[in-house]
Amino acid sequence: MNLSFANKVVLITGATSGIGKATAIAFSAAGAKVVLSGRRENLGAEVVAEIHAAGGEALFVKTDIAQESEVAALVERTVSHFGGLHVAFNNAGVESSCPLTEIPEAEYRRIFDVNVWGVIAALKYEIPAMLKSGGGSIVNTSSAVGHVGMAGAAIYVASKHAVEGITKAAALEYANQGIRINAVAPGVVITEMLDRFAGSEESDAAKYLSSLHPIGRLARDIEIAQPVLWLASTASSFVTGQSILVDGGFTVQ
């Protein structure tokens, strides 16, 4: 399989920690020039420094993915700095847990602005840049709960179901123009999001979430990064419009 990204420009949203950070480092190790984005400039600078220390090329662009003008500027900066765009990993997302009858409208707006509009806005500007670069591959971060339900997390679940639909529709629109669009759907991963949602990895809530995965544990961020690289590479050249579940058996129970 060809998992080399030499001379390829890769854009990653939500790249300051967790899955995004692990994927940025993995792409760089495979030869890519990586553009990272996120809202936390200090963490973005740390990831760039780590990539540079390993001999890679990387750039951080502070971006609020919910703001279309900032997304447009992110893609423009990517192209102007590295000369094109070949791969995008639309990973930025936020979590939410709230009983359905208590969800405030502001919470709906917060989650959908990032998880849904953020993906749409990214696609809106990434696709034209890729067409100018001769095609490419896009991976969106969905979730295992984009395939099933989960009590107490209706807004988050709905947002990830939306990502699934957006991925399929966009894949069909550009399948014959040299752009493949897929999604990765993780189970619960040991990241900062887990800390916010359930407390530490040793908390009762985290242990309960772990018990929901037949494989017997939670995922590590690199275990999500690896399928993302495969979806982005020529090794998956006949795959588009798909959502790859990386969930430790969560959804097959």
UniProtKB/TrEMBL annotation:
The keyword Repeat does not apply. Belongs to the short-chain dehydrogenases/reductases (SDR) family. Residues 8-187 form the Ketoreductase domain. Gene3D superfamilies: NAD(P)-binding Rossmann-like Domain (3.40.50.720). This is Dehydrogenase. NCBIfam families: PRK07231.1. Pfam families: adh_short_C2. SUPFAM superfamilies: NAD(P)-binding Rossmann-fold domains. Keywords: Oxidoreductase. It comes from the Bacteria. The keyword Oxidoreductase applies.
